[in-house]
Amino acid sequence: MDIEFFGANCIRLTTKKSSLVIDDSLAHVGGKSITKDTDVVLQTQPILAVTESKELKIVNAGEYEVQGVSVHGIQARAHTDQPGARTATMYKFIADGVHILVTGHVYPELDDAQLEAIGRVDVMIVPVGGNGYTLDPLGALKLIRKVEPSVVVPTQYAIKGLTYEVPALDLDEAIKSLAMQPKETVEKLKTKGFETDQQTSLVIVESFK
Q1: What per-residue confidence (pLDDT) applies to 192?
Q2: Which candidate, 203, 18, 22, 121, places its Cα nearest to that of 8?
Q3: Most CB contacts within 10 A, which of 82, 119, 141, 193?
Q4: What is the 3-state secondary structure (H, E, C) of the chain?
């Protein structure tokens, strides 16, 4: 599976048979939508205004088999939710033996049942922009330590040309607070032949425009 990042929390996951787009709100923050009619669209929060396609749209927790990809939506408290509310959905994807978690804008306290549902994670995609709307680096670190992924890919940081309702941290500032040196910077993260490391690595996936 290939992982591409386009800004905000917009991710495209592709295999030979599938194309899944998560949180394509780019048209609402000054960018251009990347969703195609043949994409499966997933939304981590109902308040996000995302571009839709002619294919399946997933917005709720549950288990799905989509274009050869196993998808498990896990209900969670959104970062802006009141205690007890759970309006967000984290998505766990399994394809070609690789396990990918897209957290979305969740509150960084997960219970044992959620961690059990998440299980093994090879690549964890997590916001780091902070400032009240989403996870800041310290909140992201809480999730990283609980989930223990092999690779972390940050999203929702300041990107030229995109204007968020709440300004986000610059990537350099977020990386300093994460206290993790990037292992590499790539245009596209390819998981074919993925090898897990004992220590969690930070990989920067450059945003496409």
Answers
A1: 79
A2: 22
A3: 141
A4: CEEEECCCCCEEEECCCCEEEECCCHHHCCCCCCCCCCCEEECCCCCCCCCCCCCCEECCCEEEEECCEEEEEEEECECCCCCCCCCEEEEEEEECCEEEEECCCECCCCCHHHHHHHCCCCEEEEECCCCCCCCCHHHHHHHHHHHCCCEEEEECCCCCCCCCCCCCCCHHHHHHHHCCCEEEEECCEECCCCCCCCCCEEEEECECC
Report the relative pairing of strands 182-186 and 151-155 from DSSP bridges.
unpaired
pLDDT for residue 144: 96
For residue 111, what is the domain's CATH number? 3.60.15.10
Which residues in the chain come in under a pLDDT of 50? none
Residue 158: the pLDDT is 95
C-beta separation of 44 from 79 below 8 A? no
What is the count of structural domains for the chain?
1
pTM recorded for the entire structure: 0.95
pLDDT single digits (tens) 12-64: 999 999 999 999 999 999 999 999 999 999 999 988 889 999 999 999 899 99
